[in-house]
C-alpha cells in the first residue's frame, strides 16, 4: 500500500512498538520463569505427543489452507507435526504446566499473504502475540478470538479487513496492544474500548464514524491514534483524566469540529499532540502552558484564531510547533526561538507568507465562535 506523508505519520508514531521477536521472547520467557522448571527432561514435543501442540497444528494448518497466495513462501515449511519449527511460530513453556510446550507467538508481518483468518485460530489458546500486519487478509477477525485469553498483542494492521469494529477485542482480558489501522473497517467504535486496560490503541485509517464518548478519558493508554477517521462531536473534557498516562495523541484529519477544551492542558505527560487538518475553532487554551513534557504540537489546517499563548512557546521541551493555515493574528517573539515553528498562512502582521488581507477581514466578520466550558461548540 502507498500512503501520503500524513498517513505515514499516523502509521509510524514516535513511540514505536518493540521488535516482535524480542517482545514475544520477553513476554513468554518472563512468564515462564514465574513457573517452576520442569523437574524431569522430556522428549521433544510435537503434535504427535502433545495435546496442546495438536490443537495448535489444527489451527495452523487451517490458517495455511485459508491463505490463497503466499508469494514469499512463508508457510512453505508448515508441514508435519513439529509446529515449533514452522516459520514465524514461536514456542515456550506453557504458563500452567512448565513441562508442556505451547505456541505462544505467531509473527507473519510483511508477508504479503492473501486469504482469510479461519475460526480454528481459536485453538491457539496459549497465544500471547499475534502479528499479521502488512498482508492482504480480508473478511473479519474470527468469532473464536475471545478464546485467546492470554493474548497480549494483536496487530492486524495494513490488511484488507472489512466489516464493523471487531467487538471480540473487548472480550480479550489480557490484551494491551491493539493495532487495526489501515484496513476497511467501518461504523461506530464501541465506547467500551476506552474502558479496557490497553496501553496502545491504533485504529486510524479506517472508515469508522463515531463521536468520542465521555468515557474517552477513562483509557489508561500511553498512545492513542485516531487519525484519518470520521469523528463527530467534540473532544470530550474527560481527556484531562489521561494526564498521568497519555504520551501521544494523534487525531489529524478526523473531522473534529469543536474548540480545544481547556482540560487538554492537564495532559502533563503528553509528548506528541497532533490535531491538524480538522475544523477546530476558537483559541488555543492558556492551560496548554502546563503541558511540560510536550515536544511536538501540530494544530495546522484548522480555523483557530486569536493570539498564541506565550506559555506554549515557553514549554521547556517543545521543539516542533506547527500552527500554519489558521487565522492567528499574533504570536510571541519567543515562538521564533523554537527549533522548528511554522506560522505560514495566518493573519500575523509583519510575518511573511500570510493570508491575503481580504481573507483575514472576511474571517473577522464571521459570527463569533461560542464554546461551552468544556470546548464544545455551544448550540444556539
From TrEMBL:
Q: Where in the cell is it found?
A: Secreted, Cell wall
Gene3D superfamilies attached here? Ribonuclease Inhibitor
Secretion signal, residue range per the UniProt entry: 1-37
- Entry keyword set: Cell wall, Glycoprotein, Hydroxylation, Repeat, Secreted, Signal
Sequence intervals crossing the membrane: none
- Domain of life, per lineage: Eukaryota
Q: Extract the InterPro entries matched here.
A: Leu-rich_rpt, LRR_dom_sf, LRR_extensin-like_regulator
The name under which this protein is listed is Cell wall hydroxyproline-rich glycoprotein
Specify the taxonomic lineage: Eukaryota, Viridiplantae, Streptophyta, Embryophyta, Tracheophyta
